[in-house]
Design a protein that fits this description.
5 helices, Protein Yjbj, Chain: A, about 80 residues, mainly alpha
């Protein structure tokens, strides 16, 4: 999976981001909108982390969490009757 999948599925992924980093507001998640650089910027603002540490945190989250998500992110929601 590449980061494009995160951007494409942001409406679902943003809740996983908020679970990981609880200091994000819903406005933060709206501003991030799946953009990796914006995510890193918001993490630095909320947590006071340096650039390199933030990049490592995001990469670690992506490699350990995002890759374990089922491929169902691209499927339509069950309520749509599919």
């Amino acid at each position: 999976m590449d980061w494009n999948r995160i951007e494409e599925n942001w409406d679902q992924v943003k809740y996983k981001v908020r679970d990981q980093w609880g200091k994000f507001t819903f406005d933060d998640l709206w501003e991030i909108a799946g953009n990796k650089e914006q995510l890193e910027k918001k993490l630095q603002q909320r947590y006071g982390w340096g650039t390199e540490f933030t990049k490592k945190e995001v990469d670690n989250w992506y490699s350990t969490k995002a890759l374990s998500w089922p491929d169902k992110l691209n499927e339509p929601p069950r309520w749509m009757g599919y």
